[in-house]
Amino acid sequence: MAVTDTDPGGRGQTPPPSRADRNAARRRRLRSVAGTLLSLALTLLGLLLVTFIIGRVMPIDPVLKVVGDRASQAQYDAAYQAMGLDRPLVIQFIGYIGDVLTGDLGRSISTGQLVIDDIKHVFPATLELATLGTLIGVSIGVPLGVIAAAKRGGIIDQVARVVALVGYSMPIFWLGLMGLLLFYGILGWVGGPGRQGIIYDGMVPDVTGLILVDSLLAGDWAAFKDAFSHIILPASLLGYFSLAYISRMTRSFMLEQLGSEYVTTARVKGLSETAVIWRHAFRNIAIPLVTVIALSFGSLLEGSVLTEIIFSWPGLGQYVTKALLAGDMSAVLGGTIVIGTCFIALNLLSDILYRVLDPRSK
Amino acid sequence: MKHLLTPRALLLASALAIAPAAYAETPADTLVIATDISDIISLDPAQTFEFSGNDVNRNTYDRLVDFDPLDMEAGFKPALAESWEVAEDGMSITFTMREGVTFHSGNPVRAEDAAWSLQRAVKLNKTPAFILTQFGFTPENVEEKITFDGDSLTLNLDQPYAPSFVLNCLTAMIASVVDKETVMANVQGEDMGNTWLNTNEAGSGAFQLAAWRPNEAVQLTAYEDYYQGASEMKRVIVRNVAESSAQRLLLEQGDIDAARNLTPTDVDALGSADGVKIQDEPRGRILYMGLSQKDELLSNPAVVQAMKHLVDYEGITGSFLKGMFKTHQAFLPEGYLGALEDNPWSYDVEKAKQILADAGIEGGTITTKIRDLREYVDTAQALQASMAEAGLTLNIEQMTGAQVLDAYRAREVPIFLGEWGPDYSDPNTNAATFAYNPDNSDEAQATGLLAWRNSYAVPDEMNKATVAATLEQDGEKRAQMYRDIQTQYQQEAPIIPLFQRVENTGLQENVQNWNAGGSVTSVMYHQVTKGE
């Protein structure tokens, strides 16, 4: 997606573009947008195809999930036909794509509900958690990485290294349980498993599906505090893991910049260390950092299955995993579309930010 | 930015935001339960066949006859039917409906509703339909076979079944009475309201369905006009919490009243906790070992006998299955008519070795598939160790439940370790699957019969005895018939019942009259109270 049509002559000497040039530029832009859209569609299609094939070759019988272990052969056959499994795979896939294009994601066999309704419910839960987790990861991870690079070998660098190492290597399952035990069980600082306390269950009107936002929209401060007390621990846990990654990446990007000549020049010119680090070096790492953050956010959006299980968080990760194990392909494919779209959107977003942040790409 | 978002500032902000961390006990009129409800796929009583779905329907619907949660020993009792009469020839049963009972919609509960509900279940022919169709009802004949007239309802049977057999089946969730008018108003095409009832409710039970969010929660509210009197609990909230340790924490913190999926470790830990109690209740599920008779080694009767002595019953129920199971070596669970309390086999490797040596068997290897649930895998590993002592090698392949089930139904699991839960509260539910297999050929495709899945050619006389027991009119004689079948079964069958499931519910001290349904039915909330 790199921009190749930059003007080699430099801005100052360029004559005003003629109408033909402007038209040509517009056509190029249109072509580029169309090309982007086409590649997006193809990516999604490929993703769905692979998921579909994996789902169909898995040795799990989705019909059994529907009719249960005790069904007679006649009931089994009836369900088999009703689910369209008697048709050739290619026809099934084409039929599915046709349905998707008309907005019909099918019905989940593991919840009995429309997949679109399930996703409307589970995705906001994951989105809320992943967003807060990423915010925590970025707001601590980036400064930590920068300081660790600036004070290389110092105490903060050592601490950052240990923090990242622990973040990488500690099983999330264990850390989550210990967190619950300490902050909920012993200290009572945070709410327990689930998105809300029992008395708030179903009390906040569902607008966006994000409880933090919905409770604010409803002006229900108590419900907001309750929801916050439930989300802060799992979000911190996810935040910790993205922090570990982001801080290490930030550090290595910064080290590269701090060793370059322009930094030495800036220092020689007598700029303060703060200005050198934040105004000069940090600006230059913003671009690769955006990609790192986008990727980290994307991986959290897939849903962190273990975190969701420990915290009884009804999110996308748990939903898709359960569906996969039940051979519930409509739900798995629906989840794949959402995750795929998120990743593609994040990629696009980081491309756009790339252009905004990098003056050379203008 | 770096000044605003320091870790310390963030920590302070979060501490302020969540300062009032007062997690008191649940409201006095609300029952809060943490359990795994991810198995619910439908709430239509004509279709629901999962544990958690039945748990909901048990409380939102009533049936013609039902169990009294405070007197389970008594068996089925009059419910929506006030009384019944069995015809002299045993070919029909006529029920008289109770007067003055209303559905949640306010509509009266009539014999017409009851007849239509049973007809509907037969016509829809979903998985649990066999509980009714085994009496000769078919989608074609059911309107003639199940009739109503005023306040009476008649079931015309195709054989003179034991009345206890028929009435026990009517306590099953599929026999729930639905509000015909409400359902008819929500019919889509030919579905008889199935799509609507999958996520809604039209019953007369002690609770109304307020909300069901899959994988998240079920909310019930008390039905104030319930014919047995409104429940003391005005709200029941069932939260999906899959993790035992999370359930335990919630219980210890007083955020829930009942935790239903506790592991032995958490049960032990809660045993010494203040304000919390553990209630043990034998449930209907039997953990058994099926030895496929297609396997050359396992089809040797000596190996079958030896295997019965290679299970460390006491060791297993005293360690990793502690509290979750108790030794039970007959196919009818305790609590069923004709249940057998004898446990004839004990763990005895030397005896097993002797049996194998007498039969001239010098070792052998078996590779089997085990579902990746801790209790099955641990049991399989214990078995593996004791088999090794007796010179037999067991290789274990772990896989998901769905994968094992697929293979089992295709008769491809040499040693199956897993549970069987009764489908209804009559002994025939287990007898007809453990001890009945009229055609053992592959072509028969009797995938629903455990005997067939294990390729066990049930002897003719046992097949006949199992059928005869469904027709015996005398209750005591019938019970004895089942005891006899089980005794014979213990002597020769290659399907070996090992343990019966015990549910350990963690409860707040003040929760009274909790009843998970015993071995015969599902959980009941109507009688639950919360003291001081």
Automatic annotation (TrEMBL), chain B:
Keywords: Signal. CDD domains: PBP2_NikA_DppA_OppA_like_7. The keyword NAD does not apply. Residues 76-440 form the Solute-binding protein family domain. It comes from the Bacteria. It is found in: Periplasm. The keyword Cell inner membrane does not apply. Residues 1-24 form the signal peptide. Belongs to the bacterial solute-binding protein 5 family. This is ABC transporter substrate-binding protein.
